[in-house]
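Sorry, explain these tokens?

***
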Amino acid sequence: MTTTLAPPVPPAARLRLATAGVRLSISWLGLRRSLSRAQQSEAAETFAAAGDYVAATKKLLDTRHPAFQQVTAVRGRAIALWKGMSLPFPEPGIRLLKQDDVPEFDARMTALADELAAAVAALEPHYDELRAVACARLGRLYDPRDYPPALADEFQLRWDYPTVEPPPYLARLHPEVYERERRRVAEQFDAAVRLAEQAFCSELGGLVSRLAERLRAPVDGKPKVFRDSAVENVREFCARFRRLAIGGHDELDELVADAERLVAGIEPHALRTSASLRGEVAGELARVAAGLDELLVDRPRRQILRRAK
């Protein structure tokens, strides 16, 4: 009896079956305004310049205020979560989230939206103070119409899961259009695979290069200082790569495995106290970084070979 093995599923097809589109939208208080034409002309006179050749803006609020920085920090964590749990996609504003990760992503993003609302509520009592400072610093450029009466509705996090597949009704009503859209989406997922591989190579290459540079023997004989996070960041990347990996790129998988092996079980204290260990790990990390650079440089050729297979 002859057993026929099913052909391997291409990475783009696996990605298409296992992911969903995810989009993060952020509404944020506008913190800069363009000067009026008269104000720009007045500013241009200072430099003997033509008003229509000068553009200028004014800053509305001091974003260095601790309460404002708390609001900004939540936005940064939301963007990091969106990017950290997903893969790039050619469609602007959309990334690919594993379908199994949708409940976790939704729960964590909801918690961040609540955290943002609390941070904005904590900023609200300082709003009059911030406007007063702006009035003093902007002088005649201050315009109360630039400022909303309250901040509650000015900062929002929203996310949704847009479909990236052609709508099924096209297959019934307009088969030719459906086929064209089907090919376009297939090409987008091919591109998504390339984007993901490039992003993984670039990120890991930066992490291991920086760590290797900190571990190398210094010219003056004094070891360079490095933070524990330099090692932990490599470990976290490897764990995230395993969770998001789409497969089909043996060289990249091997280089990630090498990096993971190098930092597994190594304590930063041991690297600080052992010059021989630092040298050994630095050399191996440099080899991994060189391999990743080669993948990035050689990526177009590798894609041609992959399609040929």
